[in-house]
Amino acid sequence: MTALDKIRGFIRQYPGADIFRDFHVDYTDQIPANGGVFPSGLMETSRTRDILGNVTTVNQYNFGLYYVFEKSPGDDTGAAENADWVMDFQEWVQSASALGFAPVFGDVPESEKITAQNGVLYGADEEGTAMYMVQLTVTFIKKYEVKNEWLT
Fold first, then answer.
1. 10, 47, 85, 116: which could join 90 in a potential S-S bond, CB 3.0 to 4.6 Å?
2. What's the pLDDT tens digit per position in 70-113?
3. Global pTM value
């Protein structure tokens, strides 16, 4: 299973994810109840090597979760409901990660962390839709051991 498959499956576990009629990769349209996850790839944040040549890396995957809700211009009630969804989703990600219910991406599951931050209204239009975005970050450790055949 790829990292993208894992994060999409994780997002779908959120109790509020039932609002998504469609959920895409690298795409979302301006129709309410649509969402999309946008992967931005792997980033290595640190690397250490032991005396045997084995390597441990700390890595991050970064994803943007975009979703389109109904939001009429000047509608404070709808805006508050959307903002509540954003904050609830972020809190759910934190609790799922802290309690070990998040998917595993690396070799040291107990050190992994998934965060959802920077939830923001990305844009709104006069037709009554608004796009929101949350940044998801997965931090994990990978271990690479030197194989004997590599030494000869």
1. 116
2. 887 777 888 899 899 999 999 999 999 999 999 999 999 999 99
3. 0.88
